[in-house]
Structure prediction request, 340 residues.
Amino acid sequence: MDTTQLQRTVAAMVQAPKGLLAADESNPTIARRFASIGLDSNEQNRRAWRDVLLTAPALADSVSGVILYEETLGQQADDGTPFPKLLEQRGIVPGVKVDKGKVPLANAPGDEVTEGLDGLAGRLQRYREQGARFAKWRAVYNVSPTLPSRLAVKENAHALARYAAICQNEGFVPIVEPEVLIDGDHTIERCREVTEQVLRAVFHALDRQRVVLEAMLLKPSMVLPGKGGERATPEAVAQHTVAVLRRTVPAAVPGVFFLSGGQSPEEATANLAAMNRLGPQPWVLSFSYARALQEPALAAWRGDAANAVAAQQALVHRARMNARAREGRYQPAMENEAGR
Ligand code: 5MM
Prediction:
């Protein structure tokens, strides 16, 4: 496999001080997000929202790539430009979420597994014609004293690795996203234990499937206490998360782009900044947030075109704060700066 093109895509995605915007909510997920502002989820509204996000001025200063949903890949901006082309024109790499969502894992009560491998190579060929250059697949792990089971850890790792191998064969950079959920009242130590098991299994499976580590990106969750438990300081989150990554993620992986996973926007930024203050690591530590980038913008927009500029300012503000967090320069006082 010639990985020159893949590594060129990776280089564009990891460029400092940027991160990724995850705008790949499937229709059921975007319907939940729109419900929070009382908006109906129809194709027109979904296209209008993605237009607000993707045309935000100066977005490219802090965002190097956008993960799109399949539907968005085929839609056009207000001026008729296909969204993937618009992103390329702005110097932002377009990507696409290719998993088909999670289902209960048979014979493993409480565990889930992600589907979507059947026909994936054919779908990727279509997505490439539409302009996508990278892909994303998310596995989720529920946490309890007994979850996830060994079976769930193994099966999700296998699917992530098969997906990654198929992507690289089709010329796509795979983003490998194992998400340890924050639902529950578990401790940060329990999250750390699960995250370590999960990442160990994922990299073992990636090796077995001969995935080229230099031509992939990791999108993990941070090590956090369950949302029903006590909050942890950014310093504690950073220590636990980086310690687990250093044990499990080979230095050949160019970038680690965290998901926000239900943290507040400011919390996700502060935690990323604390990690980048720990000193140089083998990989770039950046962001690939959906909710933590979009929430304030969605609240400003409320489905009204008259609010589009305010929504874009809110999005770009969050992206800028996270770009500073990637450099370890973010301070909460920066939230109030002019131009917000
Ligand atoms: C965990 O979800 C990913 C990151 O989002 P957050 O920063 O909000 O945690 C996100 O890319 C996710 O994969 C998409 O929103 C799609 O989710 P669904 O469940 O619709 O596939």
Observations:
- The domain at 4-336 is CATH 3.20.20.70 (TIM Barrel).
